[in-house]
Amino acid sequence: MRSRNSVAKRRPLADDGQVDERIEGQAVGRNARSPPEPQRPISDNAFAYRKNRSLRELLERNSIRHLLIPIRRPQVNGKVERYQQTLKREWALGQIYRSSDHRTQALSHWLNHYNERRPHSSLGGHPPISRVHNLPRQDI
Questions:
Q1: How many structural domains comprise the chain?
Q2: How far is it, in rounded angstroms, from Cα 19 to Cα 55?
Q3: Which of 35, 67, 118, 136 has the smallest number of CB atoms closer than 10 Å to its CB?
Q4: 48 pLDDT exceeds 50?
Q5: For the whole model, what pTM was predicted?
């Protein structure tokens, strides 16, 4: 069983509708506390993911393979939906925030908790980070 670390970044669009690479590039960059670089982000088949040239070019430059959820495969989509349900319940609606900006600032703290401390029943009560060993080419 594979575990997925959760990564979220706000991606404002430039005036021409393209991904602002200064912001998006931070999502694939690393710092001392960051989890391993994303290797295979998964998304649904929305037009915004399938036809976004600037996103495709950014991922290609960083040798990141973008996976799309197979059509008519609710098992895969169910994992995404379950994560989004947890995100909504524990982060978005789990506390009262002073403002939308305050809620946005809390996201990085919630993601750290989700990836590094929150027990996951599918992992025997361990957090996803316990499954990451940072071995080169471990996902092949």
A1: 2
A2: 6
A3: 136
A4: yes
A5: 0.56
